[in-house]
Amino acid sequence: MSEEIKLELKKPLDKMTAKELRQLCIEKIPQITGASGKSKEELLTSIKEVLGMTEESSKTGAYKEQIISLKGRIKELQTKRLETPKSRRKERDILRKKIHNLRKNTRRLAAT
User: Fold this and answer.
1) Full residue range of the structural domain in which residue 8 is found
2) In whole angstroms, what is the distance from residue 9 CA to residue 92 CA?
3) Last residue of a domain, one of 17, 35, 51
4) Residues 68 and 90 in one domain
5) Residue 24 and residue 35: Cα distance in Å, rounded?
6) Tens of pLDDT, residues 3-21
7) Residues 91, 64 share a domain
8) One domain for residues 17 and 45
9) How far, in Å, CA of 53 to CA of 4, rounded?
């Protein structure tokens, strides 16, 4: 199993085509049998099982709803900022800083 972990891939598994994944299984991962008849999704799951990788998409799914709600809040604050007159500069600055902080939060959530 130590040699499978040392696979040098030119691109991520998710970006590889089914043909490339089949070739990878046949040449470098003999534990996977029947690779020539499997679809791309089946190949990805079997390769990730052999390599001991976990699903990363489930992590982003948990934060996706939070990101969407934060972006909705940003839109609300932006419209509020545009509606405030330029004479109330202090209020506009406060709204601008809130928007900035919310954007930072969405970027942090997307990065994890």
Assistant:
1) 2-51
2) 50
3) 51
4) yes
5) 9
6) 445 567 778 888 889 999 9
7) yes
8) yes
9) 12
Indicate whether 58 pLDDT > 50: no
Q: Which long-range contacts (CB under 8 A, 24 or more apart) does 103-109 make?
A: 103/74, 105/70, 106/67, 106/70, 106/71, 106/74, 109/63, 109/66, 109/67, 109/70
Per-residue pLDDT reduced to its tens digit, 36-46? 899 999 998 98
CB 109 within 8 A of CB 98: no
- Count of structural domains, the chain: 2
Whole-model pTM: value is 0.48
